[in-house]
Amino acid sequence: GDRGPAPVPARPSLAALRRALPDCRACELWEPATQAVPGAGRARARAMLVGEQPGDREDREGRPFVGPAGALLDRALAEAGVDRDAVYVTNAVKHFRFEERGTRRIHQRPGAEHVRACRPWLEAELAVVRPEVLVCLGATASQALLGRGVRVTADRGRWLDSPLADRVTVTVHPSSVLRARGEDERHAAYAALVDDLATVADALG
Ligand code: URA
Asked: From the alpha carbon of 173, which atom of ligand 1 is closest?
């Protein structure tokens, strides 16, 4: 059944986390989802980027940020000058939460209970990777890691006070760029994301 604690191994490595994650029943999202989606990247990555949850494509493929939001993120990272190999990407919630409408699966934001249930995985990833730079993408990741006091619009692109890494910042979620209405708005939102990521590139030297 549901609601045991997340089965995070006592001495985690990325490989051990990856092996244990499929057995997680810490919330009910595991059941309708195709699979849990672990983070991706090297244990030695200097930066960790945290999104919200897998999307439709990620749920099917089992890898984070492989859908449209991921493509946009990859492009923005490249444009900002962040070395993709230096980056570990993961999500605040490891299962896709969706609503079925006919044959379509519509993304639903994870609830506070899903974020809370999934947090041990994120903490274990942080403990293994120990990134120099931590970047929360969007409100879900920001609140999961930094609490309710953080506001993406007010705090984006600045270094925030947090014990989680030497440098911690927030920016928008790449999906919000895709959702921006109108071409001008989309371009502006994209440019602002690249700007924030350029700050990360600077920090990585
Ligand atoms: N959106 C996310 O937050 N994470 C993914 O992995 C894909 C889309």
From this structure: 3
Among 56, 106, 171, 173, residue to substitute to test ligand 1 (most atoms within 8 Å of Cβ): 173
Amino acid (one-letter) located at 104:
R
The 10s digit of each residue's pLDDT in 109-158 is 999 999 999 999 999 999 999 999 999 999 999 999 999 999 999 999 99
- Predicted model pTM: 0.97
CATH fold of the domain at 14-204: Uracil-DNA Glycosylase, subunit E (3.40.470)
Q: Where are the domains of the chain?
A: 14-204
Q: Could you report the predicted ipTM of this complex, rounded to two decimals?
A: 0.92
- For residues 1 and 25, the answer to whether their CB atoms sit within 8 Å is yes
Q: Using alpha carbons only, give the angle 87, 92, 93 rounded to the nearest 5 degrees.
A: 125
